[in-house]
Design brief:
Blueprint: H1 6-14, H2 32-42, E1 60-66, H3 76-84, H4 96-117, H5 124-142, E2 149-155, H6 162-171, E3 181-186, H7 196-211, E4 226-230, H8 237-251, H9 256-259, E5 263-269, H10 273-278, H11 282-296, E6 303-308, H12 321-330, E7 336-340, H13 348-359, E8 368-370, H14 378-394, H15 412-422
Parallel strand pairs: 1-2, 1-3, 3-4, 5-6, 5-7, 7-8
Helix pairs in contact: 1-4, 3-4, 5-14, 6-7, 7-15, 8-11, 8-14
The structure holds ligand L6N33NVT, FE2/S2 (inorganic) cluster and fe (ii) ion (FE2).
Enzyme class: lyase
GO molecular function, one term: ferrochelatase activity
Function: Catalyzes the ferrous insertion into protoporphyrin IX.
Length: about 425
């Protein structure tokens, strides 16, 4: 089980180095004065600004944010290099620039084999571009006042990178003195500072670099892009409906007399306990999605939430998906349906880890099954459009929840980017 044993290989790769993989969460060192400053800024809640509903006319850019994945095996090394360079995902402190590439290089051949096994690359770009385009077509119809809607994709670790998306936005006539409205739409339904938080910090960084720091002019306009954020949507009814329909479809594959005893195993990407204990909202929001889906199903079946894809030797949030499947089978429960609940399209965690490893090695491929990922599901794409329309109608810049930092957050990036997105001004006259 390559992914599950990956921690040992990683710690081997970094052993002997001053700050190892195992200390990724404790590498920041603060002096007393810095701590006092941090304590003050940590507690700051930045109230979101309400936008003037009448002023937001099209064109409107809708930017799908996600982690991305290598489209070919040749892109794996760059993907992993970017991923291990991301201090919002894997904080390696002052050794980030040294340790990051080292771990990425060591890991590349193994991960290349996994992408080769699922057809030579991640399908996430194909699905994201399709979902964004189809959603914009629906949005043009249901929200003519903000049309035309232009789809963009910004990945954190693979093409199209955030900076490539931003350059395209500028080339397409947004910003650069022309203003215009853009919605940063996370494609992670549940918020984690390591995923959506990282993408927003990156977007804020490129916004500062490519659009400068121009303050509001006398008329309130500065010609930069007016950003708003859809930062989480764990219980959106269209999302819940799409998941529920896929589960119902899968349950039909079991004989009627066994159907209501099939155990539903929701599986989400895990988080290191250091991130959970920092106060990350993700576990609660994943739990909320699971509960909403079960409510929609009328609690027809027994269910559990488990977590997959731990990397490195630190403690991660459990129970592990692979272990849960093995233990239920050992207890005699062989009818199991796996439901990837925290990602909206296929990726190595579904196509390789769940299909090839967890199900493939369970010895019960005929009774342990996985529901389809949302991918091009029309119910899901309509949900995305409804969600975007409600956001555009609401006039809010981001959720109230996004303005609050984790209790133990010490990151200046989080502080500044939250301040920026929560404080985006209205754009009168546009
Ligand atoms: C909601 C989804 C995800 C969360 C939360 C998440 C947190 C998280 N991930 C790592 C480390 C790695 N993740 C890797 C790949 C990867 N991660 C997700 C999703 C979430 N990660 C996906 C969908 C993928 C695969 C992308 C694809 O194209 O298929 C990897 C690289 C693969 C590997 O080397 O095993 C690492 C490393 C951490 C540390 C973390 C939380 C802090
Ligand atoms: S880590 Fe959660 S807000 Fe900074
Ligand atoms: Fe991950």
């Amino acid at each position: 089980m390559a992914l599950r044993h990956s921690g040992r290989a990683l710690s081997k790769a970094t052993s002997g180095l001053a700050s190892s993989w195992s200390s990724w969460s404790t590498t920041l060192r603060w002096k007393p004065a810095q701590i006092q400053h941090q304590m003050r800024t940590m507690a700051t809640v930045v109230p979101p600004v309400t936008q003037d509903k009448t002023s937001s006319k099209g064109p409107t850019a809708i930017v799908f944010m996600n982690m991305g994945g290598p489209s070919t095996t040749d892109e794996v090394q760059d993907f992993l290099s970017r991923l291990f360079a991301d201090a919002d995902l894997i904080p390696l402190g002052r050794l980030q620039n040294y340790l990051g590439p080292l771990i990425a290089n060591r890991r590349t051949p193994k991960i290349q084999k996994q992408y080769a096994a699922i057809g030579g690359g991640s399908p996430i770009r194909k699905w994201s571009e399709y979902q964004a385009e189809e959603m914009c077509k629906i949005l043009d119809k249901i929200s003519p006042e903000t049309a035309p809607h232009k789809p963009y994709v910004a990945f954190r670790y693979a093409h199209p990178y955030t900076e490539e998306m931003y350059e395209r936005l500028l080339a397409d006539g947004f910003g650069n003195g022309k203003g215009g409205r853009a919605v940063a739409f996370t494609q992670y339904p549940q918020y984690s500072c390591s995923t959506t938080g990282s993408s927003l910090n990156e977007l804020w960084k490129w916004r500062q670099r490519l659009e400068g720091k121009s303050g509001p002019l006398d008329d309130g306009r500065d010609g930069t892009i007016q950003w708003s954020v859809i930062d989480r949507w764990p219980v959106h009814e269209g999302l819940v409906e799409a998941f529920a329909q896929n589960i119902e479809k899968k349950l039909e594959e079991y004989p009627k007399e066994r159907r209501d005893k099939v155990v539903l195993l929701f599986s989400a990407h895990s988080l290191p306990m250091s991130v959970v204990n920092r106060g990350d909202p993700y576990p609660a929001e994943v739990g909320a999605t699971v509960y909403a889906v079960m409510q929609r199903l009328g609690f027809s079946n027994p269910y559990r939430l488990c977590y997959q894809s731990q990397v490195g030797p630190q403690p991660w949030l459990g129970p592990q998906t692979s272990m849960s499947v093995e233990e239920y089978i050992a207890k005699g429960q062989k009818d199991l349906v796996l439901i990837p609940i925290a990602f909206t399209s296929d990726h190595i965690e579904t196509l390789y880890e769940l299909d090839e490893e967890v199900i493939g090695e369970s010895g019960h491929k005929d009774t342990v099954k996985r529901v389809e990922s949302l991918n091009g599901n029309p119910v899901f794409i309509k949900a995305l459009a409804d969600l975007a329309k409600s956001h555009l109608d609401s006039g809010i810049t981001c959720s109230a929840q996004m303005s609050l930092r984790c209790p133990s957050c010490k990151s200046e990036r989080c502080l500044e980017s939250k301040k920026f997105f929560a404080g985006q001004q209205t754009l009168p006259g546009k």
